[in-house]
């Protein structure tokens, strides 16, 4: 079994991808599964919920944005 080359979070966040963006998991880049209709429904419901409270609690609401947690 070969050794894996790990990358730093900073290096991953500096990368740009022309196709679907992969996930960063413990130093490795892994392909994300294609989202399905269930994923889209949940995403839509969450965005509607966040927009409904945006008047009282202003937040930046975005879908499919890469961020560091």
Helices, strands, pairings?
Blueprint: H1 9-14, E1 23-25, E2 28-30, H2 37-52
Antiparallel strand pairs: 1-2
Find the structural class using helix and strand composition.
Answer: alpha+beta
Please, what is the average pLDDT? 85
Order of helices and strands: HEEH
| Rg result | 16 Å
Helix content: 25-40%
Distance between the termini: 31 Å
Describe this structure in words.
32% of the residues lie in helices and 9% in strands. It is built from 2 helices and 2 strands. The chain has helices at 9-14, 37-52, and strands at 23-25, 28-30. It has a two-stranded antiparallel ribbon. It is elongated, with a radius of gyration of 16 Å. It starts with 8 loop residues before the first helix and ends in a 17-residue tail after the last helix. The model has no long low-confidence stretch (mean pLDDT 85).
């Amino acid at each position: 079994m070969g050794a894996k080359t790990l990358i730093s979070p900073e290096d991953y966040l500096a990368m740009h991808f022309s196709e679907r963006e992969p996930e960063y998991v413990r130093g490795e880049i892994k392909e994300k599964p294609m989202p399905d209709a269930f994923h889209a429904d949940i995403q839509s419901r969450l965005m509607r919920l966040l927009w409904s409270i945006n008047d009282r609690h202003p937040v930046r609401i975005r879908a499919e944005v890469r961020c560091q947690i």
